[in-house]
Amino acid sequence: MTTPSEQQQKDLIRARFTRTAEVFGDYAVNYRVRFAESLMRLVGAGHREIVADLACGPGTLALRFAPQVRRVYGLDLTPAMLARARQSAAKEGLTNLDFAIGDAQALPFADRSVHIAVTSYSLHHIPDPARVVREMARVVKVGGRVGLIDIFASEDPKDAALSNRIERARDPSHTRTLAKSELAQLLADAGLRVIGSEVEYPPRSFDHWLQVAGWRRGDPAYIETRRLMEDAIRDKVTQFRAQFAPPDANKPGEPPDIQMVNPTLFIGAVQS
Q1: What pTM does this model have?
Q2: Each residue of 189-220: pLDDT tens digit?
Q3: Interhelix angle 220-235/157-170, nearest 10 degrees
Q4: Is residue 161 part of a domain?
Q5: What confidence score (pLDDT) does residue 69 get?
Q6: Do 27 and 75 fall into the same domain?
Q7: Comparing C-alpha atoms, which of 255, 200, 259, 209 is closest to residue 232?
Q8: pLDDT tens for residues 40-53?
Q9: How would you write 76-145 as a 3-class SS string?
Q10: What is the pLDDT of residue 238?
Q11: Alpha helices, DSSP H only, in 108-263?
Q12: Is 122 exposed, middle or buried (0-12, 13-18, 19+ CB in 10 A)?
């Protein structure tokens, strides 16, 4: 049963990703192709296998897995994101995908019914990420794999707290970024054994990072997020590794952009 607080969080997620379906969809589907391929390598997707993509968004993972597997089922809370995913699948001529409204915390699959369950950049939006990982472990067959991609926070509580303040200022649907040790523990607690992991620090422009969240310079959310990021630059306490970019000659008198990274963890695990 969904509690009032859980429903409120789902409403926040749906509102945020409905508003940014086009700009975020363009970014996620095009820029994160390599990320999807990295996860596919970690979980070893095969041509006869069935994949469940939780919180699939615009199809970041599903579109890349589909040519390599028998079928992909993508679930998401946001109709606008599912519409974008279907559009992309049709454009690419992919016919072995099904997209439907679905909750990553309560998957509509029988126990041990899929070969692979994956999700990307979703756990930091969910109040109870352990529940999602348990659901993934439940639905994969013995010998099946679970794959995760997500941002991760510092193991230092002070650093992690500021990182999460910045994330929530940018996106009210953000709950909490987990540390690498916490993500690994979620898998272990669900009875999954890690078979591979990778870490990347993809470079980002602060202005573009805010743009894909639906904000531009002058918006209150942009101003507050930038204020916190400048605090991070001054105090040198977050994993964003933020620093001011060189001034833009085409924008005299405007504050410079900020160069940063998004620490990202890729994990593959097996159900034994």
Answers
A1: 0.94
A2: 999 999 999 999 999 999 999 999 999 999 99
A3: 160
A4: no
A5: 98
A6: yes
A7: 259
A8: 999 999 999 999 99
A9: ECCHHHHHHHHHHHHHCCCCCEEEEECECCECCCCCCCEEEEEEECCHHHCCCHHHHHHHHHHHEEEEEE
A10: 80
A11: 129-139, 157-170, 180-189, 206-211, 220-235
A12: buried
Per the listing, tokens 């970024």 go with 177
- CATH number of the domain that residue 116 is part of: 3.40.50.150
Instruction: Look at the block and give the residue holding tokens 């599912």.
Output: 82
153, 163 Cβ separation under 8 angstroms? yes
Question: What is the domain extent for residue 74?
Answer: 4-153+173-201+262-271
How far, in whole angstroms, is CA 4 from its chain's centroid? 24
Quickly tell me which residue has 């010998």 as its tokens.
143
Overall domain count for the chain: 2
> Residues in the chain with pLDDT < 70?
1-4
> Do 50 and 145 fall into the same domain?
yes
pLDDT at residue 109, as a whole number: 97
The predicted structure's pLDDT at residue 253: 80
Pair of tokens at residue 185:
């523990």
